[in-house]
Amino acid sequence: MTENSNPALVVRVTDGRPPKLSNESIPIPTPAANQVLVKISHAAQNPTDVQSFDGNLFGDGAVLGCDFVGEVMKLGSEVTRLAKGDIVAGLIWGGEVKGLGAYSHYCLANERISFKVPQSISRAHASTVPLAAATAFLALFSKDCLGLDRKQAKGTSVLVWGGSSNVGLYTIQLASFYGFNVVATCSPRNEDLVRSYGAKHVFDYRDEFVAEKIRTAVPDLKHTFDTVGNTTSSSIASRALCGEGGTLCTVRPGKTNTEDVVKGTHVTDVVVWTAFCKDISYGEFKWPASKEDYELASELFEKLPAWLENGTVKPSTPKVLRGLDAVSEGFQEHRDGKISAYKIVYEI
């Protein structure tokens, strides 16, 4: 290693005042048996980073950031899939463990919840993949979410509400790959993009009759994934389901903002952290460890290199900002609602 310390962006909370981000040097973490130590070159921003900071979810001493790419520097004693020098993309729940997150120079990756980056994909592009792709895969196929059967895809429709979001674009690609009939909403300016990723029907989410138009086009719709999770998205998306009702999975933990869905709609939520096979607490909400979700996510990460190489999965478009000092700027861009069809990536 060229460094003996770990420069990081640390959340600091003092005297009950709003949290601040502080550039500090913290210890380099030590990998567990199934983990590798990664020297980070790129970290991608996710909405959960901003929400966790603004809500002070993890308190003083947290290091946020979930998606990262870098070089494997050290192996845990049981690691077999990766080797020193590999360039990998990893997923970490930044903030859950004090001092461990992607907004730093060193982080840890579970060898089964990470993947080797193909040479044909840039590090910046690869960093956009782990959290959004895993969220999409679990939302579609986990028994606790939509629970779609990949063997029965033909003739089955799924609505992706927020098709041009990062999670939405991965959901469209993965559902299309397995043969599902994909319906999506987005703004008119992103319609061509969403269709190019595999959506067969695309609707303007701001159209006051959007639910009725979706029902007319796809009268047998029984599955929808709300990748937006705002105060109205789940309610409107539920109205697009067929008269027999159906299942709506929301990206918001604890099924937040689903109080006004159509009566009879089965509501679930996707929490990507179930991929780590341990009990999860997020504020007041709790989820038990899921071996099934761990195996499902591991399957995805094992397949991602080939899918990225052959174009089955296209990574999100990165907007690269330089250094951890730019994180405050990136967070504000999210708050201002300016991010659409791209993902902010920090070059460390």
Automatic annotation (TrEMBL):
Gene3D superfamilies: Medium-chain alcohol dehydrogenases, catalytic domain, NAD(P)-binding Rossmann-like Domain. It comes from Polytolypa hystricis (strain UAMH7299). InterPro entries: ADH-like_C, ADH-like_N, ER, GroES-like_sf, NAD(P)-bd_dom_sf, Trans-enoyl_RdTase-like. The keyword Chloroplast does not apply. Belongs to the zinc-containing alcohol dehydrogenase family. The keyword Glycosyltransferase does not apply. Residues 16-341 form the Enoyl reductase (ER) domain. GO terms for molecular function: oxidoreductase activity, acting on NAD(P)H. This is Enoyl reductase (ER) domain-containing protein. SUPFAM superfamilies: GroES-like, NAD(P)-binding Rossmann-fold domains. Keywords: Oxidoreductase.
